[in-house]
């Protein structure tokens, strides 16, 4: 079809690689009866193809949440500019760093991502895992654990082309790889091959310093760690939509690695109590480390499965979980999900069974969240996926299951409205916030204002806000 060919020309990477069963499932979501009736088959098909294309590319802006409880935004902006100028001086390229404050979100700075750029591939090839390749596309250097294959006689100081292994089929310590891979840029090896693959201990630190990445975006490794926090724009929006106030008691049910937890505490001016729950202990330790780094004292992290976080005893008064019913003024349920909105992701090897396994878990968590929330309290539900089953269908189910819940307007509301297909009314869909990069994928290079492009060209994400009456 014409629009498919047009999009392929725009793309430096192939569309995201999915198992056929998952691709067909997603197509059914984007071409459901309600959508087809509203926009027609050709437009629905076009949106679906754009989704598959944009998922394999990074968003066009890097979003930095700044800790305005520690310093004013302009002061952090200036410091960040100085730090990044030093970084660029060490690079072989002359690239100007631009940093813009977001006009509607007071603790966000935006940095344009430049790319894809015309970088020439070299004969010396190094292969990294898909996750590492994704990180490189968002400005990271290559850390040693991410390296899978390298030239046989690679020495520190060698210039290499970095490729991402799309299907996870490259053999560790190989000297070459002919499988499905994509070029992500050129860099300088910081270690000999023997240090990476022949050492008794796992290699640590930067293995390749990226000098000519395909997408130019600053590396934030060690840059202003207590003042600047890399976070996707929709994830920052969640904290503002929750609307925490000083002195409140707030629950973050699935908190690791703690970005949203710390944001909530900062928005409260560190006055009140933010309870963070995480069922995996080493992830819980990461939340505590982040809170300490950001000088936040109102956060209390507990190792707990949030499904079991509510006590059957209304008089329960222990400090940690399980908590008495109606213990919290606000609850954030940033639910475990299929993650199909994450960008860039060039390949996803999950089965349809895995993709569909999250809806029952999300509903169990929802039951606990409603029980733990005070009357008159706010519950925010969010995911970083694009399926109806985990987003709008969950909202329809929640409104049907819990008569005490009502949908609320969101501020800021910079994403699109909810997707058709779950039987929700137009008024209900307008109250939801779905970040849908496919809706503006072919317009990202136009003369639209910077903040508009940054608001549209994000990861796929979903937010619903409820009041418990």
UniProtKB/TrEMBL annotation:
PROSITE patterns given in the database record: NOL1_NOP2_SUN (PS01153), PUA (PS50890), SAM_MT_RSMB_NOP (PS51686)
Pfam families in the cross-refs: Methyltr_RsmB-F
The record's similarity note reads: Belongs to the class I-like SAM-binding methyltransferase superfamily. RsmB/NOP family.
Catalytic residues at: 384 (nucleophile)
Q: What is this protein called?
A: tRNA (Cytosine(72)-C(5))-methyltransferase NSUN6 isoform X2
Q: Domain of life, per the record?
A: Eukaryota
* Xref: InterPro entries: MeTrfase_RsmB-F_NOP2_cat, MeTrfase_RsmB-F_NOP2_dom, PUA-like_sf, PUA_sf, RCMT, RsmB/NOL1/NOP2-like_CS, SAM-dependent_MTases_sf
Q: Which GO terms describe its molecular function?
A: RNA binding; RNA methyltransferase activity
SAM-dependent MTase RsmB/NOP-type domain: which residues?
Answer: 153-469
Q: Which BP terms from GO are recorded?
A: RNA methylation
Query: What organism does the record attribute this protein to?
Result: Xyrichtys novacula (Pearly razorfish)
Which residue spans traverse the membrane?
Answer: none
Listed A to Z, the keywords are: Methyltransferase, RNA-binding, S-adenosyl-L-methionine, Transferase
Q: Which residues are involved in binding S-adenosyl-L-methionine? A: 254-260, 278, 313, 334
């Amino acid at each position: 079809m014409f629009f498919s060919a047009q999009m392929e020309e725009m793309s430096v990477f192939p569309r995201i690689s999915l198992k056929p069963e998952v691709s067909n499932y997603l197509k059914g979501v984007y071409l459901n009866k309600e959508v087809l009736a509203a926009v027609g088959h050709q437009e629905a098909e076009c949106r679906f193809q754009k989704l598959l294309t944009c998922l394999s590319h990074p968003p066009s802006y890097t979003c930095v949440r700044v800790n305005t409880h520690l310093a004013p935004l302009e002061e952090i902006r200036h410091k960040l500019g100085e730090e990044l100028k030093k970084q660029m001086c060490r690079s072989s390229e002359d690239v100007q760093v631009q940093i813009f404050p977001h006009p509607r979100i007071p603790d966000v700075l935006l940095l344009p991502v430049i790319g894809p750029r015309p970088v020439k591939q070299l004969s010396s090839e190094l292969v990294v895992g898909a996750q590492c390749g994704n990180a490189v596309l968002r400005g990271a250097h290559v850390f040693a654990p991410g390296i899978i294959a390298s030239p046989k006689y690679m020495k520190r100081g060698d210039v290499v082309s970095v490729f991402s292994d799309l299907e996870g089929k490259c053999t560790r310590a190989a000297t070459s790889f002919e499988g499905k891979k994509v070029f992500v840029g050129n860099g300088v090896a910081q270690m000999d091959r023997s240090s990476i693959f022949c050492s008794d201990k796992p290699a640590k630190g930067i293995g390749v310093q990226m000098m000519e990445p395909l997408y130019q975006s600053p590396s934030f490794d060690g840059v202003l760690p207590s003042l600047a926090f890399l976070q996707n724009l929709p994830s920052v929006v969640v904290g503002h939509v929750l609307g925490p106030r000083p002195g409140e008691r707030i629950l973050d049910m699935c908190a690791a690695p703690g970005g949203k937890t710390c944001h909530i505490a900062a928005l409260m001016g560190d006055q009140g109590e933010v309870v963070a729950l995480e069922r995996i202990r080493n992830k819980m330790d990461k939340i505590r480390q982040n809170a300490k780094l950001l000088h936040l004292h109102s956060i209390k992290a507990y190792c707990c499965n949030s499904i079991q976080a509510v006590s059957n005893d209304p008089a329960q008064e222990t400090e940690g979980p399980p908590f008495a019913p109606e213990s919290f003024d606000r609850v954030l349920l940033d639910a475990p999900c299929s993650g199909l909105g994450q960008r860039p992701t060039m390949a996803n090897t999950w089965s349809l069974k895995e993709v569909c396994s999250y809806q029952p878990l999300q509903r169990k968590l929802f039951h606990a969240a409603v029980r733990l929330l005070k009357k008159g309290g706010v519950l925010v539900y969010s995911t970083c996926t694009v399926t109806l089953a985990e987003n709008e269908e969950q909202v329809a189910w929640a409104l049907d299951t819990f008569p005490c819940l009502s949908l609320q307007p969101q501020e800021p509301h910079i994403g699109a409205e909810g997707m058709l297909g779950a039987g929700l009314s137009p008024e209900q869909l307008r109250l939801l916030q779905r970040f849908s990069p496919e809706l503006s994928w072919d317009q990202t290079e136009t003369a639209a204002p910077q903040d508009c492009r940054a608001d549209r060209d994000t990861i796929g994400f979903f937010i619903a806000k409820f009041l418990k009456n």
